[in-house]
Amino acid sequence: MLIVAPSVAQAQDVLEDDDCRLELQVDSNVDWRGPYGRGYDVFDTEQSFEIVTVSIRHEGRACDYFLTGIADTAADTPALSGPAGRLFYDVMIQPSGPSVLSPDYLGDQLSRVRGRFPRGAGVQTVTLYVDVPPGQFVPGGAYSGRTEFRLFEDDFGSPELADQAVLGIVVPVASALRVESREVGPGQRDLNIDLGDLSQGADHTLDFSIASNARVSTELSSANRGRLAHFANAPGIPYRVWMGGQALDLSQPLVRQEIVVPGASTTALPVRVSVDPQPGAAAGDYSDTLTITFVVDD
């Protein structure tokens, strides 16, 4: 009996050493910040990636393995859930692809990251790239979801699940606004409008185009409360303004108006300034400062 017992223990040790033990670990969750560190910008056209490092630990005999993943969504295309929609994403093996995500439990030939460990203890790392493609026009807010990575031992063509780990992904989407006009150049904030000879009256329309993924409103104020002031203090000349076809009361200190921006479409917003004929007005220059502020309502 004294001879048999140690020989049995030694046999068990050999059997354990013949096992391939694999462990999967994801370094951290992804807080996607984009190329400028402010999250996803619906107007940005530049592609950007967040890097994820996956560690695979091994003990025991030499063995082959592969890594694959699946998105935590019922949609065919991986998507993050947000306050009022979905934001599509992917996890890539290389920045140019292919994707490590597959709807199949075992993945497919393109989605598998393959490797091999020699006998003994060791660690290998896999770098993956989280991609949120540009050009997705979604409402502002936080979009989140999960990706599950699966690690399979792959000896003799019979894959066996060894470990799995979950990666959380959060993408903040800012409420953004784009305002353009052919008369107001890029980056320009001031515009002088010449109404011509006011004795004949005047009518001028300034066209804006607006795009936003949030509710938008305008705040408008007239320095002279709707009157063109004479340079030498002669009586002023009243004028009227319509925004989007709606007459505005410039006698108020501040006029606020909501604008309907239909999704990804650009909304046309004409601002019309009109002066009735002034045959008896004093000669000279008349002016007013009209301030229009476009506001994103979160």
Q: Could you tell me the radius of gyration in angstroms?
A: 33 Å
User: Major sheet, described briefly?
Assistant: 5 strands, mixed
Mean pLDDT metric: 89
Contiguous uncertain segments of 5+ residues = 1-15
CATH class of the largest domain: Mainly Beta
User: Could you name the CATH topology of the largest domain?
Assistant: Immunoglobulin-like
Q: Count up the helices.
A: 1
Q: Strands across the major sheet, in which order? A: 2-11-10-4-8
How many extended strands?
22
- What general outline do the C-alpha atoms trace? rod-shaped
The arrangement of helices and strands along the chain is HEEEEEEEEEEEEEEEEEEEEEE
Identify the CATH homologous superfamily of the largest domain. CFA/I fimbrial subunit E, pilin domain
Helix content: under 10%
CATH architecture assignment name of the largest domain: Sandwich
End-to-end Cα distance, whole Å, is 80 Å
